[in-house]
Amino acid sequence: MEISRYKPGIVQLQVLIWAAVLLLIFFSLLPMDGLPKSVIYTVVNTTSYAIIIYGNILILYPVFYQKGRFIWYGALVVIFLLVMGILRGYVLITLYQHYALMKTAQLSLPTLLGYVPGGILIYVLSLIFRISIAYFALKQRAEEIMLQKSQAELNLLKSQVQPHFLFNTLNNIYYKVYKVDPISAGLIERLSDIMRYFVDESPKDVVPVNTEVAFIENYIELEKIRIRHGATINFGKAYNPELRIPPMLLMTFVENVFKHGIDKSLMQNEVNISLVQKEGYLIFKTINRIIISTATGPSKGFGIANLTQRLTMLYGSNFELAIDTTGGLYTALLKIPLQ
């Protein structure tokens, strides 16, 4: 098990922490104990602390505790701390005596055991350190999984709202029709633009807002030819043309207008659409008459539910999606933050 795999740069961070510990111990002892004794005490104790910490989190904990061998783990921890405490005391006393830095007690088991309790606190700190590493590793993995899941769901949802246009020879048809019927040729050109949008733009994370608006306008013109008596579509726009938004966010409402908000038996249908930039948000609104046959709730269909899921993945709770059916009008409003 390698600590470095949990978080980029964690090895460098540990080096800085240990350097700080060395300097802190050394300079806190230097005024009272002098240079030689401070160096010996700092090096021996810091080395001992490092062995206890890494011996536990790299060997004892993963090899025994994580595999359910709790009795072995407990016994080995006790032995490990005893050995490290005795060894630390032996090295310190021996070095002090060798350099005649101070009068020390003779080497004896009781004296050496007095160095064991200091290692217990370091062991507890190693457990906290190990738990922290596991927590951040788990959190990092969870974030990666959620990101992958959200991206997969987002791609799926985007693909579900894309109609399937499979006319590979539209350009040839356009040139042939243009000679006979320029109006129909213009509609074929709009259909070609829609297909190009699906192929080139919709897979992207964001697109220019003007590109999205052009797509909607092409769609509107194609839908209007299916309305027997025509329709008046008022599309008001007030935004920075350099804005970029996720593709296919606005299309659901426009589709609902033509599916549920047009009465083909009327001589005239009127629809009001607006796209306005205001106070850091982009606000899209559609207003159309409620057709009796669909007044029970056109917003309950797949499109709105699909859009809501996608907006949640993109913006969390920082968006507004509202439907109002008062006054005989169906008003849909979408408010998203500008990025």
Automatic annotation (TrEMBL):
Pfam families: His_kinase. It comes from the Bacteria. The chain crosses the membrane at residues 12-32, 38-63, 70-93, 113-138. Keywords: Membrane, Transmembrane, Transmembrane helix. GO terms for molecular function: phosphorelay sensor kinase activity. One of its GO terms (cellular component) is membrane. Residues 152-228 form the Signal transduction histidine kinase internal region domain. PANTHER family: SENSOR HISTIDINE KINASE YPDA (PTHR34220:SF7). This is Signal transduction histidine kinase internal region domain-containing protein. It comes from Mucilaginibacter ginsenosidivorax. The lineage of its organism: Bacteria, Pseudomonadati, Bacteroidota, Sphingobacteriia, Sphingobacteriales.
